[in-house]
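for ur thesis appendix - 6,7-dimethyl-8-ribityllumazine synthase. copy paste whatever u need, i formatted it the way the template wanted (i think)
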Amino acid sequence: MKLNLVRHLPNVPPKGSQSRILVVVSDFNSIVTDRLLEGCLSELERKGGAGLTVDLYRVPGAMEIPYILSVALPEKRHVAAI
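the 3d part is after this line
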């Protein structure tokens, strides 16, 4: 059985809404993370449409991801973080 959870999520945020999504991706193992980012952005475009703004942060490795989240999320500019 193949399950793709993204396909089972509702359109959040709804198409046409003016929303910001925070995406943090590691440069480490970029062969994998670049493909994950490509799929993520493609799905966000499909679900969110033109009203969606994606703020993309690239970090050297996984250890920096919590730091970026701890700085960016308290500002409450984003409706979600990936």
